Amino acid sequence: MNRREALGLLAAAPFALAAGPRAKAYSDADFARAIVIDGLGSPTDPEMKPGNWRYSPRGIAEMKQSGLTAVNVTVGEVGNNIDAWNATLQRLSYVGGIIDANPDLFLLARRAADIREAKAAGKVAVIYGLQDTAMVGSDLDRLRILKSIGVRSVQLTYNLRNLSGDGSLEPDNAGLSKLGRETIEKIEAEKLLLDLSHGGRKTIVQAIEASKRPLAISHTGCRALNDNPRNVDDASMKAAAEKGGVVGIYWMPFLVASGKPDTADLIRHMDHALNVVGEDHLSIGTDGTLSALTIDDATRERQRKFYEGRAARGIAAPGEGADIFNYVHTLNSHLRFRMFADALSKHGWPAARIDKVLGGNLLRLYGEAWGG
């Protein structure tokens, strides 16, 4: 951690300490025991060379030091691209190659027991997830094919309208289509996890009503705290919880209007969501990489190109920008989950609640969705 990051944590401390009575500190033993699941993220190696799928010694060390037990990795193409199906298969092949090249570090999660196995073996369970059903369209048998490859989480829409319904950026807010309802039925029949992140307001409401099994909103923020279309309103979060589902808070620019959240902002969203859904239905989905982000000229140029590409495709949400990075700057470390647990503990959260939010709630949900 550099001096700037340390100062950022210190700046957040008055908020955390003032929020409630001091709970028993979340110890190293507590963290070592905990199941830590990132409901949406990317396990990265800062020294990975092009064409080399084997993690570097540094990448392996940071992964193991992070305490991460499992992560939902996006393996599908997003957007209404004509070649989305083939692009998804190529992405699945690439991520599968990474897992195969690092058997001492990763395993593929097909059931909840695989996550427990990863924890016992000191590995990271990789959950294959989709952030769109545009690549499925009306060919719902593709969901069965994707399941056979290993996909376990299916997000219905991604910001824009697809054949299933409207995403969060569609101004008409038309909700689910007839096909969308059939898609939900197929997702649940295949015992896949339905994810409503990135959905339009009406789409989320109607999808929760249509679902018959527990579901996820894997990565979002509280719209009551920042009125951004990527954030979800209290009524929808509560409805998801009442179906037995789990709502994950992301570590993204959309937490605050400035696009530059810190630890205090993240905890503010965690507190609000806790009051809405309860501690048994709350989780995290960082929507970020595990490695620390080094902000230099090369990083700034990559971010500019990344944003301009998303803007050109119409999938960039309000709050994104050429100079807005997808992280909580005071948690910019591969040790972010430990730092986050410490911040919650200092804020007054008991260890049992921290355990649930770090991964216990998602592990329960995955077991109910997939079995095992």
From TrEMBL:
Transmembrane segments: none annotated. The keyword Repressor does not apply. It holds the Pfam family Peptidase_M19. The keyword Electron transport does not apply. InterPro entries: Metal_Hydrolase, Pept_M19. Keywords: Signal. Residues 1-18 form the signal peptide. It comes from the Bacteria. PANTHER family: DIPEPTIDASE (PTHR10443:SF12), MICROSOMAL DIPEPTIDASE (PTHR10443). This is Dipeptidase. It comes from Sphingoaurantiacus capsulatus. The lineage of its organism: Bacteria, Pseudomonadati, Pseudomonadota, Alphaproteobacteria, Sphingomonadales.
